[in-house]
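User: Hey, my collaborator sent me this sequence without any context and asked if I could get a structure. I don't really work with proteins. Can you help?
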Amino acid sequence: MSGTLILASKSASRRAMLDDAGVAHECMPANVDERGLEAEMAGADPAEIAQALAAAKAAAVSAEQPERWVLGSDSLVEVEGRRFDKPQTREQAAEHLRFFSGKPMRLHSAAALAQDGAIDWVAPSMATLHVRALTHDFIEHYLDAEWPAVSHCVGVFRIEARGVQLFEKIIGEHFTVLGMPLLPVLGALRERGLLDT
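Assistant: No problem. I've predicted the 3D structure and written it out in C-alpha cell form, which is a compact way to encode the shape of the chain:
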C-alpha cells in the first residue's frame, strides 16, 4: 500500500467520492486543532480558512508518512457572514436550521495534497445553496430522521440523503456540495502519477 493515496479524513462522503471515482486510498484522520486554527484566522475570508484547514490536515498526516501523498479536505458553511461548524447537539442543529431558513448558504470546500509534510497543491471551490423557508414541524421531522448522522456535517445536511429537501436551488459543483472539489483533485492526482492519464 506504500503507493496508495492517504485521505486525511474520516468523512464518509469523501471516502465514497474517492471509492466511486476508482481512486485507491486509505484513511488516516488528521489530529488538527480545527477550532484553534479558525480562531487564529478570525476575520479571514472563509475560502482561505477552508484552504488552511485542508492544508493543515494534509501536512499533519504527511509529516508522519514519509514519501506518501496525503489528501486533506475541509468545508465551511457561511450564512449572512456568519460561519457555522458542525452542530454539537440536536438543539444546536435545530437552531442552525432556523437561522438558515430562507437564506443563501455559501459552502466553501477545499482540498490539499502534501508529501513529506510539505503542501504541494491546494484548490478551493464554492457552492451557493438557497435554503427554502423551513417550518418548525419540518425541522423536527427532518432531525427525527437525520440526527445524529448530520452531527458530522457542516450545514446540518447530507445532500445525498434527506438534506436535499432543505434547498430550493443549488449553484455550484455537486462534488463541492458533497464536501470536496473532486474534479480538481483527480486532475492533481493524474499530474502526480497517482492516476492513469
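In plain terms: DSSP finds seven helices and seven strands in the chain. You can pass these C-alpha cells on to your collaborator as they are.
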